[in-house]
Amino acid sequence: MAEAPLFKRLALIGIGLIGSSVARVALQRGDIAGEIVANARTQASLDRVMELGIAHRVELDPAEAVKGADCVMLCAPVGAYAALAEAIAPHLAPGAIVTDVGSTKQSVIRDVGPLIPEGVHFVPGHPMAGTEFSGPDAGFATLFDGRWCLLTPPAGTDPEAVERIAELWRRCGSMIEVMEPAHHDRVVAIVSHLPHLIAFTICGTADDLADESRQQVLKFAAAGFRDFTRIAASDPVMWRDVFLNNREALLEMLARFTEDAQAMARAVRWGDAGYIEDKIVRSRGIRKSLIELKQA
Ligand code: NAP
């Protein structure tokens, strides 16, 4: 017999790629939540959620969606969190756990933390899994399989609430690491946010080329450029919000990257073959480690 669900009612505030993947795995397993209530910004998305059959109930008003839920997961772009938290705060059930999946963590603690009422727990989280697609059709139940989920509970958070959210992600297939929010933001700035910034920039640079060269870029994209275009196809609102809400760490990593890129430029200019080769050898080592860690 399946284990009793971890939560009686899970309210997903936002049900795009990430929210709908949580919904799918929860429905498939049956031991994460007894009932799933979904909220989105538009009725069109909620209609689609019902067509797909990935929630028991949908609510356009976030306040209605969280009523009676013992777990509330914010799965909207992080720039929307402050307004959402304000809307749901008075309606949260005593003892409920509010968690989230946002890609930045200090901003989430800044925007949501102060609005959490006494007697409600707050366990911020970030599943390190995703694709360049968005919306409720984009999700799939195995998205979190074998991927890390980082939890950044503020000091003083009830350890039992942290453990229940950790267990939710374990049941989604994830491995858990608890870390300081500031550390989280620096780590993701280098592993995720900077690569996206570079991808968006390089696609812009290619697009600015004279028409005839741009046609050639598209025609021969297979040689490397194509990988950047995949990342650059990601949702503009989500990434705008990530950049603006992890400003300091992203700018720090960009400054480091710019210095290293300049050093590489100097090596190319002066024909420093040893430097260039060394850098490429080191990069290959990183790729090999990722494959060994099954994170490639
Ligand atoms: P998504 O597919 O674009 O879905 C976003 C959801 O939030 C939709 O249901 C959308 O409703 C709703 N929403 C959008 N704006 C809103 C607003 N102003 N108020 C209320 N709801 C709003 O996005 P996602 O990729 O699932 O990302 C969701 C969160 O996960 C973000 O915070 C992101 O940082 C984080 N995350 C993303 C990835 C990734 O690779 N995509 C990975 C890890 C974490 P409508 O459909 O009606 O617009």
Structure explained in plain terms:
With 296 residues, the chain is an alpha/beta fold. The protein folds into two domains: 7-179, Rossmann fold (3-Layer(aba) Sandwich), CATH 3.40.50; 183-292, Orthogonal Bundle (6-phosphogluconate dehydrogenase C-terminal fold), CATH 1.10.3660. 52% of the residues lie in helices and 13% in strands. The protein has helices at 17-29, 43-52, 62-66, 81-88, 106-112, 159-171, 181-208, 211-219, 225-232, 236-245, 247-269, 273-292, and strands at 7-13, 33-39, 57-58, 71-74, 97-100, 121-123, 125-127, 148-151, 175-178. Helix 4 (81-88) links the parallel strand 4 (71-74) and strand 5. Helix 7 (181-208) packs across helix 11 (247-269). It binds NADP nicotinamide-adenine-dinucleotide phosphate. NADP nicotinamide-adenine-dinucleotide phosphate (NAP) is lined by residues 14-19, 40-42, 45, 75-78, 80, 84, 101-103, 126-127, 130, 134-135, 138, 235, 238, 242.
CATH-defined fold name of the largest domain: Rossmann fold
Calculate the mean pLDDT score and round it. Answer: 95
Note the beta-strand portion: 5-15%
Q: What helical percentage do the residues reach? A: 40-55%
What is the molecular shape?
globular
Number of strands: 9
**What is the ordering of alpha helices and beta strands?**
EHEHEHEHEHEEEHEHHHHHH
What are its keywords?
296 residues, alpha/beta, Rossmann fold, 6-phosphogluconate dehydrogenase C-terminal fold, 2 domains, three-stranded mixed sheet, 12 helices, 52% helix, globular, binds NADP nicotinamide-adenine-dinucleotide phosphate
